[in-house]
Each structure stands twice: as structure tokens, then as C-alpha cells.
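for the record, two folds in this file. i put them one after another cuz i was lazy. first one right below, seq on top, C-alpha cells after. the second one comes after a little note so u can tell where it starts
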Amino acid sequence: MLEVRGLGWRGVLEGVSFRVPAGSSVGVVGKNGSGKTTLLRCIGGFLSYCGSVRVNGVEVRELPVGKRVKLVNYLPQLLSRSGYYTVEEFLLLSVSNPFKVEEALDYFQIAGLSGRSLLSLSGGELVKVFLARLYALDPDVYLLDEPSAFLDVSVLPLLGRFVKELLGRGKVVLVVSHDLTFLSRVCTRFLGLKDGKQLFYGDRSTLKEQIPELYGGGFEVLEIDNSLFIKPNV
């Protein structure tokens, strides 16, 4: 379980509060600069936040790094290619179990990249490597910042299946994305941020109702086969 109370950080975020039971996913939405990435970085313990962030009753900022990364972990929006590690070497730095690494490579269908340098990978390949790292670490809370941004359309079903499998195993998943169609397919709850403040936290109907307030006008919100689509008025 993830519990966030009165979360704030240096005027970028203010008074964000929500609760996520085990086996639930939250789509975090809002315009650029609304505080979405800052929210994930606070929950992951990377920023010295005000308020409280608890995972299974434990305050995240009170944990040493070694324990924290096993409880809550983060796929950043901007992925680092520092160093000259191969994909396999990079994964083994985080997860010393070679069998876990092999399983993660197979799951994301990137076993063929294991001997490649991180510096040689495309953006989409790098996202899959970092997702494989999370898969191998297997924290209780997964924080995914724009995971679909560099992935081609053929990989999105795999990412959706991954999120749904995590929920079946009782994990908590937070996903930041501008792709409302993808979020509406994989998330059970939605958190809207506007100018660093919480505009709403609720189900799909809440999201659909609040989208115009969140983003402004100029479009129509459509719901087809339990998925939301944005149709620009042009």
C-alpha cells in the first residue's frame, strides 16, 4: 500500500494526498510543468519532500538506499547512458542474480541486446532495458515516468500486459503519461495535477469529467471500448 499525505516540494508540489491499495495502478496526468515527475521523484525518495510518503506503513525517506530501492523503484523519463557497460553488465550491477537478469531480458524480448553497449541502443531499446531492471528488482511500488514515450506501437501491448501482471501480484504502479488512451487501459485510478496542486483523484469517470478543466478546451473526449480518446477540434 502507498499512502501520500500533504506532499510538497519547494513550491513545485503542494498538498498532494492520496492512497493506493495493493494491486492498484494510478495514471498521473497533467500539463508539462504540473509536477508529475517531481511527484514520482519524491515518492521514490530522490527529493527531500515535505509531508509523508509511506509504503506498507514505512516512511520512504527514513529508509537507507539499499532497502528503499527494493521497496519502491523508478523508471525515469530521462535515461542515463553513462559508462561503457553492456546491457547484461548494467543489469547485474543492480541485480546480482544472473537468472533474474536472464528472465527479465526474455520477458522484454531483448536477450539479443545483452552484449550490446548501452551507448549503442535506441531510445526504445533503452526503455526496455530499464524496464527489465525494474522487473528483476521487483519492488512493491513501481514508478513509471513516460514509459511509452520511445516505444513503437508494437511494444505497447507488452508494456500493458506487464502493468496488469504487476497488479495481479499485488504491486502498486504509478504511471505518468500524456497518452490518455494507454493510461485508461492499464490504470484503475487517476491523479490530476495542475500547477503543482492536486486537482482530482478518482476513477475513469472522474478523469473523463475533469479532462477539460485539466487541459483546457479545444478538444472532445471520446470513450470507445472502455478506452478514452482525445479528438482535437480542428
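(here's the note) second protein begins now
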Amino acid sequence: MTINYAHRGASGYCPENTMAAFRYAIELGATGIETDVQMTADGELVLIHDENLKRTTGIDKLVKDVTLAELKALDAGSWYSTDFAGEQVPTLDELMELVKAHHIMLNIEIKSGIVLYPNIERSVVDKIKAYGLEKQCIISNFNHYSLAGCHAIDPQIRTGILYMEGLYRPWDYAQTLGATALHAAKYAVTPEWVKEAESKGVIYNVWTVNETHEMKALIQAGVAGIITDYPDRLHQLLTGKG
């Protein structure tokens, strides 16, 4: 069955990349979580999309320039709603514990396109192995050099190529990186391409899909995973209730 990846958690209902969003996603039927990983000044892996903390915490600093203790002191929930005041930026450890407990998938997007975090690939791979989540995790990135680096560290770790559009025969390209998945924007997928990729041992996980008619089309096309802000909508379709 198609994996229901909650985009930054249930970000249609909660502040993105918070434990509240991750927990609620599971309640809504998500069978996977998608999140963004960056690194603090003291080398801790934390879950936040933007390189700058301004949008979600109100502090005009880069993630790379604050320690974990400084980051944990910030409010990452109030920007979305006062109902979530006090939500923190989580660590990768916190989410991995949740994922392990609920036996769901985890899509870790390493954010290393603007800030090149030193050795973040090894840190993420080591963390996956430490939790025994090799079969439940996939690493994605728009920086494909980073994905090649992950594959070099451990060829058994699954990787997914993030891209927007116009990648010619992406399944062939994926094989040059040792990648197992194509993480394509929703408009860069056709049923024919899904079948062609599958014949080469490459799957599609598609982002970010929030409309039910788009979800239906992608399910029919046979994609392996759908990344959505509204995991409840996808859950209803996958369980025959939508």
C-alpha cells in the first residue's frame, strides 16, 4: 500500500516539524513522517525546515549559529497558533524514538543546499543505525552530492532524489547515485514513468500532495509514497473511506 508520509508532520493542523505535529500525524493515520534535518553549532541534529530561525521562532539567527540549549529555549509553536505555545524544535533523537515505537517510516530530508553542515551525512546515517531503523528510513536531499555521500558511507541506507521538474529518465540517473527512490514534485510524475522506474527497481515518493483528486491519481499510478500536509485525507482514501 502507498505510504502516507506526513509532511513535516501534520503541518496542515499543527506547527510544522514539532512533536505535536508528528504525534498528531500518527493519530490521523500517517504511516510515515517526513522531516527536515539541520545541525546546531554544537553538532546536534535538529528538525527544522528553514536555515534561519526567524519564521518559526521569531529569532533572526541561523540554525548553525545556535547551540541545542539555545534552540530548545525558543518557542516554535506560537507563530502558528497560541494553542501551540511552548512547542520546541525537536531533535532527530526525539522523532526516532517515536518512529521506532509506532513502527512507521521516516523520510529524513537533509538540508545541505545553502549551509553545508560538516559530516551531517555520517551523523544521520550513524543515528539511523544506532536506533536500528535501517528498514524504516530513507534519506532525501535536493543536494545530490549529499545523497552520493550517504550511499558511500553505507550502501544499505536508502536514499531518495529530491527534484522539481524536467529530470530526463530520472530512474537511470538514480542508479548513478545508488538511489532507490525519486522524490519528485507532484507535477513531475506520470503513470508511465512510475512503471518505467519500477522496472529499474526505483520507486516514486511524491510531494507535496494535498488535494484528494491528486492523491487518487497518484495512488492509481502506483506511486510508493505520497507526502502530504493532510495525512487524514490520504488515510481516508487508502482505507476506502474517501
